[in-house]
Amino acid sequence: MRIILRLKLIGIVKNNFIESTDPLEMRKHESVIIVDQAYEEGLHKIEDHEYIQVIFYFHRANDYSLKDQSYDGIERGIFASRCSQRPNNIGLTKVKLLKKDGKKLRVIGLDALDGSPVLDIKPYSEFID
Prior knowledge:
CATH topology of the domain at 11-59 and 90-123: Elongation Factor Tu (Ef-tu), domain 3
Strand content: 35-45%
CATH superfamily of the domain at 11-59 and 90-123: YaeB-like
Structural class: mainly beta
Oligomer: single chain
Order of helices and strands: EHEEEEEEE
Low-confidence stretches: none
Distance between the termini: 29 Å
């Protein structure tokens, strides 16, 4: 089954990671999410949340496999892993919001490469999530 989806790019990731690397290492460093001016109003009161979820596109992923080996060496199905090589190249990461400055969000914990398109941002809620 093939469905055509139209997604809106709401922002872009800026950081020092231009090539795929260990996501655990990436999460130790800061990134800036620059939200497109058309969506800046949607950030109103986001700083009330310590953590946010970022949905982004793995724009440099080329292919996928339905099985992957995890850090512990155990082979798992792609839907049972956090591998970036996914059928739809969509990533989701919970990050700590360090600062909001206009349309820029400074975060730590993001495992997206520099230039990754941001598709959505949601507040993290321990109660719901």
